[in-house]
Amino acid sequence: MQPDILYQLRFISNLGEGPQGRPLFVLTDIERSEGDKEPPRYRPRLALWDGGLRILTQGEARNPQWKGEYYYFTRKVDKANQLFRLPVNGGEAEQITWLKAGVNSYKLSPDGSRIALLSPGDREPPKADQPRSFESWPFKFEQRGLLEDTPAALWLWEQGSLRQLHQPPLEITELAWSPDGQRLYFVSSSSLPERLEGKQRVYTLDLQGRVQEWFGGEGPISGLEPTPDGGGLVYLTHAYERGLATDARLTYRPLEGEPRTLAQGNFTNSINSDCRYGTYAQTPRFGPDGLIYLVETKEGHARLRRVSLEGEVSKVHGVGESVLAFAFCGRELYTLTETATLPPRLSRPGEVLFDPNAEVPLSLGHPEPVVYRAPEGHSVPGWVLLPQGQGPHPLILYIHGGPHTAFGSAVMLAHHLFREAGFAVAYCNPRGSSSYGEAFADLGFQWGEIDQADLLGFLDTVLERFPQLDRTRVGVAGGSYGGYMTNWLTARAPERFKAAVTDRGICNWTSFFGASDIGPRFVQLQLGASVWERPELLWAKSPLSLVHNVKAPTLVVHSEQDHRCPIDQGETWYTALLHRGIPTRFFRCPEEGHELSRSGRPDRRVARLEAYLDWWKRYL
Prior knowledge:
about 625 residues, alpha+beta, 4-stranded antiparallel sheet, 11 helices, 39 strands
């Protein structure tokens, strides 16, 4: 199995209800031109499962929804996303919006007679060669680039006509219809200071364009879901009680009366994977039984939970697989599920219906669980993938991003490619990881301290347990937060590692503060400092301050359009290593952002994996 196995994969996503109780979804494959004259591209198509696979569109189809006589989806027309509809009974897809700036997102009304959509409208997008001015923040965002000065407006499509319903002063991030279709709920901040602090509010909007603030102002709000009787709203929120490590509260707020918390947890699927493409419904939805369903990640597994309005919580899905998305089709529950060795598949309770990669010759070994018992009393769960043969095998310690994500029941193709090439791979969930409770996830401004202790303790445990591993050939790698920790560990424990790959990492918190699309808020919540308050801490926590200690030959991987961990981080680390005389290489990817490893152009994803393997073979 080589990196180009990626070209054979198919990705299932955007699961929702279709006509006659059948699941509707997007199936994406990778299309390659004859002789590779054009770069490979993703081809997302609308599909239905009715006992067999039915492909509904041959052209691009994203973000599907169904109501009544039509399927709706978005498709690029002259580089702008436009809304289309396709008759359920057959026929050609019909374009129904022609907005120059395209459609950002849309929601069908409960009866399908109206569509609410977010769009900048007919505003001409700024030309790339013209100067830009900004008076707000963020002024750029990952995968979106430089933002427009005026947020997208809320529009209403009805009977073939489109009218602007509301122009918000700040960006709308969530949108939902009331069950009677007479009003909308949306989420936004009330002011720039609130936006800077990550606080949001919920507003109501009637079909005449009248806006009324309802509640909020404490923290982020997501997953809006009106109760079926229209008597209230459920949603996810918190007030940063433990910073970004705070678990979300599933909250019920009646139209009249006080809100109450129904459940608290690490809601949504926070497990790392590089075998997904598309979007996945995981936030609260009411089932036909009147109960609330949502996904929660617990100890490295994503489970479907069922919660009543009285706060009674029960499990829906069993052990052994993770839920990536769910939908009720008619009265029947369908899910997209994944495991550590199986990419997402369409399932219903107790039955796998469709595996898009059943014919792909994937060689995915079963990871062996390993637990490090720390002297402080906590446990660090992890896994090891062992290559075939007696060894001695070189070992790669691979660190996840976040830090508030986790490894677990989901495929990391990169790990299996390393194993196939003869490298053992060890990976774990140190403190800072999600799904083990807030106390475990909260690093308490101790980045690079307690997480380093857990990672090195886990590494020692792995080396002691598996004598076929070569202690003299240990590499370290990771992306984002994992890239930061790769830099940090090779500077703080230089004798431990023979080679390293740092991918979209961080080396300098001072420059990250201003250059990242989340910089000021992230740095304040994670490190308790800013460039004017405790700037010495930002430098002390920056791997760049210790770069003179690094000995490991290091591959630096970074994308030019990464706005989350901007490319100056990779440039600075590479330049410092080069001037220190450390063997280093800079794999620099144009036109890609922070998501290169998960949704970048396929040939660039393959080239990245090949660069990793080449580095490991050369230095491990």
